[in-house]
Structure formats: structure tokens, C-alpha cells
Design a protein that fits this description.
alpha/beta; single chain; metal ion binding; folate biosynthesis; dihydrofolate synthase activity; 2 domains; UDP-N-acetylmuramoyl-L-alanine:D-glutamate ligase; 427 residues; Folylpolyglutamate_synth; Protein-Tyrosine Phosphatase, Chain A; 15 helices; 17 strands; 8-stranded mixed beta sheet; 36% helix; 6-stranded mixed beta sheet
Length: 427
Amino acid sequence: MGSFYSPNASWSLANWLDYIEHLHFKTIDLSLDRVQLVAEKLNLLRPAPYVFIVSGTNGKGTTCRALEILLLAAGYRVGVYSSPHLVRYTERVRIQGIELDETLHIASLTTIENNRNNISLSYFEFSTLSALNLFCKSNLEVVIMEVGLGGRLDATNIVDADIALITSIGLDHTEYLGADRQSIGREKAGIFRANKPAIVGEVDMPISVAEIAAEKSAILLQRNRDWNCEQEDDSTWVLRDLYGEISGLSLTQIPLSNAATALVALRESRLNVSEEIIRHYLPLIKLPGRFQNIKQFPRVILDVAHNPQAANYLASRLVPEINSGKVHAVVGILRDKDISGVLSPLIKKVDYWYCATLEGPRGTLAKELLMSLKLMHQTNNTKIFNNVKEAWEMARFQSHPQDIILVFGSFQTVAQVLQFMEAENYL
């Protein structure tokens, strides 16, 4: 179905998503002009009295989740916009921690369509406007926006946030954001606003981020200068910021850096979240597809690690609990990713490789993954498969109860395995 079809009231959400996917001539078209015109017409630029916006190469989703859970526990009415989704489009918008019914999304997409006045919108721009529309109708106190790509020209940046966060800065999406960390940092810092806090969780912050903060007169709060966090012992950590020290915090299930960045932003916001809530809820926070332990015997771990930074973190956490256990890796990676950079951190951790071809123009062939492994002198125990399903089924067949099956490499790979597990009641 292409954009030449006229939307009608009987359309399903799947119909709508197909429509908005083909509406614009470019899949990714970084610009604020078109999306801002529609947002202004519908009065969507202030979706809540308080807004957080979160950018970063890795860690955006878990940082948003940490803010969401702590604010909900404190009694605030909270909306979250995140992307991409794993299995269902409805995952992209949460209000009070809950996904909305498809009918509400359909109604919201219809509103955007009826008011765009033939302005061409990309899939992400259309869905961002729809999310803002849903938030504006929900009487929220706080909205948390996850940046899709970069920051400066991302559709989410039409909203003037009260606090901006950058979780990390790595080499990803270089064709859009620039070839080095200075350029990428400059793009991500585009979400900063004058006289508003800008929290940076990246330890090695490019100087370009400070330059943009100064240009915009943002209040830069830099890690290891204005705040820091560190593990105290095997079970606790400490945060130090401009408001003092909070020590003896239980270790988190999400990356400590992301938990700390969220906590600094929350304390800087001066929203009323008690230390008791922080201590109780922060260690409980997790997010699907982020080192998600989903089954035992064998243990199944799902992780959407798709760039070197995320793969290094995944490798650091991948410790077989039973000495005799083996690690079986089901991997599928998109063509525009640093394939060797994603695979290499896991070479010494994985015993068996199941390389899957991913569908679509961005998908990498399994034999290309195999070639990358061979270049890293990983030639034993490697197999190629036509698709993720075949790779997953073989990994299950060959694994033993004491083993680990790791599924990683892209959102698409993890989402497919999640769907297979749900269909077979394997969860």
C-alpha cells in the first residue's frame, strides 16, 4: 500500500503504519521545518508542564525507563515516547506506564493526517506528532521524550525540554551525524536549551558538547566534573552531585551509568521524588531487550546491542554462571552497522555462532557475518542460516540446560525471537 491510497475510518493500525511508512520520499529526513508546522497548528509543542528529552548513542531507553518508573512511583502522571519498538508499534507510547489501545493510536494518526495540509512527513515525524497529540489529550504532569536519531534535527527536538540528557556518545549513524565523536556530540547537544540543565553521562565528553552548551547558554552538568558515580562494593554504589551524596544505593539491573544520569536529572528537576522511592525502585528497573534474561535451562538472554559500545557492555555482563556451560550466539546485524565492531567484543565469550540473514534492504547476509568472524580468526563452531528463525531453532536444538543462548545484533533480530517464543509459549 503506497501513499496514493486515501486513509479511511475502517483502516487498521497496520494499514496506517504502512501508509505513513510510504508517505515520504526518504525514510530518514532530518529536518524540523515540516514537523514543526503541523505541531504548531495542533498546539502540540507543550505536551506537559515538565519535559525531559534524552539523547545518546546507547542507553536512551533505559534512562527514560528509570525516569518513568521513579516519577510514577512518586505519584506523577507520566507519558513516555520511545523508539524503535521491539514487537508492537504501541510500545512507542506509554501513559502511566501502560501501552495504549490500537484504537487510540488510529484516532491520533487520523488527527495528524487531517491536519498536515499535504505536508510530507516521514514515519518517525508522523509517529512523533501522534505521540505528542496523545500526550496533550492525557492531562500529564511529566513527559519523557527519547530522541530518535542525533538530536539537533530530530523530530522530538521541536519540543523545548526543561532538562536535556545525553547518555553516551559513540560512532553510530555516521552517515547522518558526522564521522567523528566531535561532530556527533555537536548534533546530540542540539537538544540543549538556554538556562536549562543539560546532563551529560558520557565520561569522555567531546569538547563540542561544551561548545554548544556555551553557545546556547545551557547549564552544563558534566560527569566527573559536576557529578559522578562509582561502585562502592559488590552490591552498592554512590552518587555525588550538586545536591550532595546519596550512598549505599543497591546495584541496578540497567547500566549504572544510565541509572546515575537519570537520577542526576531527576534531582536537578526538583520534582518531588523521595530518597525512599529512589532506593526501593531504582534496583528493580529493567527494559525488554536490554540484557533481558527471559528463560532458564538453558538461559536465554536478549540484547539489542547493535554498535561497538553496546557490544562491549554486553560482553562485560556475559558471564556463564555454570563453568561447564557454553554460550550459543544467534546474531543478525543491519548492513549500516559496524559489523566487526559489534562482533569482536564477544569473540572470547561465545562458543557457538549462529549467523542469520536479516530481511530487507538494510539486512546483512549471514555469509557476510561469517566472513567477519573468519577475519577475526573465528572459524570453528560457526554456521549460517537463511533467517533468524532457522538460527534460533538450531541454537535451541544444540544447547544444553546449563548453556546460555544469546540473541543480539539488532532490534529486528531480538523482536523476531521474542515473537517465536511467544507463539510457541516458550517464555
